[in-house]
Design goal:
hydrolase, ATP hydrolysis activity, metal-binding, Rossmann fold, six-stranded parallel β-sheet, alpha/beta, seven-stranded parallel β-sheet, 15 helices, GIY-YIG endonuclease
Length: 601
Amino acid sequence: MQIAKVIPKVKTSGDGIFDYSIPPEILPQIKCGVLVEVPFHGRTIEAIVMDIRRSSQIQILKPIIKIIDPNPVIDNLHLKLAKWMSDYYLAPLGQTLFENIVPSAKRTIKKNESEIAVQPSSLNLTNNRFLIIADFSRRLKFYLQAIEKTIKRKQSVLILIPDLSLIDYFAPKLKDLIILHANLTKTERWIAWDKARRKPFSIVIGSQSALFAPINNLGLIIVDQFESLSFKNDRSPRFSTVETAKKLTEFSKANLIIGSLTPDIENFYQAQKNYKILKHNFLKPKIEIIDTSNAKSILSETLKKNIEKNLFDKKKTLLVFNRKGEGNYYTCTNCNWIFNCKQCDLPLRPFENKAVCQRCDKTFDLPTNCEKCHGINLKKTGLGTRKLSKIIKDNWPKSTIINLEKDGDELTNDFDIAIATNYALKLNLPKIDLVAILDMDSYLYLPDFKSAENAFDTYYKFLKISDQGLIQTSRPDAGLSKSLAALDYESFFNHEINLRRKESFPPFTKMINLIFQNEDEEICKKDSIKTAKSLNGLKSNSTEIESLEILGPNPAFVFKKLNKSRWQIIIKHKNVLPENIRAFLLKQRNVIIDVDPVDLI
């Protein structure tokens, strides 16, 4: 009797591999990578055949019900990638496979037999790695040249982008583009996925889900705007698209191009060792730092004078202010009660008649009475983009003002002053006469090791499109302020990398964030304390005790999320995570494991 070792599409403990007998009638079609249907605890589920054996240690086995797809849904290359992801990101192999690599099969779709699947061949690849630092138009030109060369060699290309709007720039220039992303329907995704599987070589573009397309003869991977936080998966396994793409090029011997205007610190540090770095220099605008440590208004006198001059000269001004709404809080002036989100316990951002949670996006009606003292003296405090619009209108009543803060907002030529949140960076922003950063300091008070990097990345992109720039800050002598004013990435990098070396943050150490969540705050706290105690016990038995830190448990900075309390433990280690701690973490079921977190809040 032949035995199939399969990984079912279900959460399991252990390695998640189960033995099933192979019925004689389907034996000729069974092979590794095939998608089958199996019985599992009283129901039928999908599973992937991982291996075929002649015997099993289990005496009585259930049979495979049927083959769903006779063509393998995963090749050896992507199986190797899935195993690496499972090992590195401390996630079950079955979860890694089905969450990312194998889409739900649509069994009614007819196969196109004119396209024949081929196995990856040992083509003469050089495994080159490039980092290009330039604006998007120049990056795109470089990408298209590399794509053309790769297709001429009859090899496939994978393009990974953080924002689907970028597809519009590639699509007109590339034929037979296969598009894969999470917003497709299951049927659309399966058709695109199956098309990539069957073509001898192809061009696939999309978000992080495109990373797992079953591409044949992979010759080139392009990752644009690789610093984007959207390249980090927000559910288990919490993998980095960029790091996984690097590993895929390593396994496939394909070439890799990563491109950015402002590379993240860790990737730029690593790129200096084994990447060919291409950098485009540009004419930098004049940027002035304004000290607002004693300011009484969001609009400094220097900024007002520049806006006045722009209006007189019929020039345009862009004010960058990353706080939506009409204020920061909706509060009672009698007892200081603050209108908070019931699920996240965070202050709601007030708009005209509504309030919105910045964490879960839930919308609430503004109350007319205080929930604590039942008073009626409620008001919006602080400053948001809508309130800023009113301040601008009060100062310059004849000016045309637009807001760029949400989907649907567009930058037209019919404006004098635009007020923008970070959302505006998704738009194709033209040159602007004056760009002013109003709230740079808001980033600097976040308890996160990447806060300065995120601020530099965001404001650099805004200031680069200006003819003239202004930065309002209460810390004019800070390294961040000076580097931004000079639009000097390398100066910022050198300052930041020295801080991280001193404080032992990535790239000089590896980090794992363990997040505990529970509706019962006490249970959440006890779980984290129990886990920390176990980890410290394992640490004392480890040979790498000197290079290992267990920090916490502590309440998370965002303590409540979706009505659940949150505690966290941070693990720092230098090289390889000790095996006893790795084995312990793999058994945990009440914790979110975030390897290489992009933030700690």
